[in-house]
Amino acid sequence: MYVPVVVLAGWHASSRSRKRERVDFGRDCDRHNAGARPMRRECGELVTTIPDEGEDNFKMPRASVVHMTSTATRPHHMSQVLATLALSMGTLSSGLAKGYTSPALDSILDNQPPHLYQSPNNDTWLAFSVTQQEASWVASLSMLGAWFGAMIGDWIMRRGRRLALRMTSLPLAGAWVLTGVAPCVELVYVTSFIGGLCCSVITMVAQVYISEISMPGIRGCLSAMLKVLGHVGVLLSYIAGTYLNWRQSALLVAVAPSMLFLGTLFIPETPSYLVLNGKDDEAANSLQWLRGEHVDIRHELQVIKTNILASRAKQYELSFKNSMFTPRLYKPIAITCGLMFFQRFSGANAFNYYAVLIFRQTLGGMNPHGATIAIGFVQLLASLLSGFLIDIVGRLPLLIASTVFMSLALAGFGSYAYYVSQTQNLGYVDSAVVGQHDWIPLLCVLVFTTALALGISPISWLLIGELFPLEYRGLGSSISTSFSYFCAFFGIKLFMDFQQSLGLHGAFWFYAAVAVCGLCFVVCCVPETKGKQLDEMNPDYAQAR
Question: What does the alpha-carbon distance between residue 457 and residue 408 come to, in Å, rounded to a whole number?
Answer without folding.
Answer: 17
